[in-house]
Fold Dicarboxylate/amino acid:cation symporter.
Amino acid sequence: MTESPKHSQALTYWIAGAIVAAIAMALAAPNFAAHFEIGGELFLRALKMIVVPLVFTSVMCGVLGMGDIRQLGRPGATAVGYYLCTTVLAVAIGLVVVNVIRPGVGTVDPARLEEIAASSELPHGEAEPPGMGVVLENLALMLVTDNLFQAAADTQLLPIIVFTIAIGALMTTMMDNVRTISNLITEANELLLRFVMALMRLAPLGIFCLVTARFGKAHAEGQFLQELQQIGWYFAAVVIGLAIHGFVVLPAIYYLITKKNPYHYISAMSQALLTAFSTASSSATLPVTLECAESAGVSKRSTEFVIPLGATINMDGTALYEAAAAIFIAQAIGFELSIADQLIVAVTATLAAIGAAGIPEAGLVTMLIVLGAVGLPLEYLGLILAVDWLLDRFRTAVNVLGDSVGAAVVGTTIPEPAAATTD
């Protein structure tokens, strides 16, 4: 098997430069910057175009690489345990930071609160928050689809991953009979990764268009900076929480398990993290995350199995944000939340983040679930929407970093190929 191409560190610098240049142009000429939206949309669609076939081939290669399906048990259990533990830690960090900083106390103009309260209409026409039962029910239903091609068309990755794992598991029991199919899938996966590398040569231009158009549009509307003045402390609290989770907690887990320098690993993942910030989509970033993690030395079998699954259900940044946002809204409107209420917020944010894959418009809907769980008025969600699009980029980057660290952690439980198979 040929080795996957290694990503260029120079490309990372070009992407970082593109983001800085895009923000500068958006601030200097916001109306002109908004016209770059078509270029950004083309790049984003090109990334999304390859996600479904790459998920199928990479997960299949990961399962086949186990050799014996019985070897999938320990890595699978480790992956699920890692996802759950890091999500709980992220929620706890969000609650601690927002309770220490108290960004909602005395910072929001009462006139702004009255304006939001007067318009009882929920954002995007949501009528009422779904309960946690709906989240869990939809998640269960999303594990299996009645139309695999429709799921692929809608980029519903969870049923595709479940189907792929099931087919791959069966193939490991009949390897001699499916050798041709196995070789075809392996070679297709290599081809798709080559395509990703070719596409990433255009990444600085595509990311420049994406960022400059979104920042330019926000600046031209004049809402972003005004809202940031009102809820700047909330914005800072969420970013601080994400920074603690991304640069302290996840590196600590990485070091404890792998005994390697976590910041060297984060540096190796920088291209994926910058792409995540630019696209605000874990799924769209998935091809880049796979390539960067493998280039950083993570077992190919681990990256192919863990990262696609993590991009679907591992949402550390989202869980942290939802917990912090709920407490901020309560502080802003003077709604007292007891310790018990905050525990409910923690549990709800954890389950909602894990179950987000089963609900369309997941970020908005799961936020409504968290607010509804402790009786917070749902219309005050409008208080944070003006800056949500930017925070979404930060939390997506943390989500991707969590997936990457998860691949390294699970990789320690996967036996070496020589120990599993012999010629």
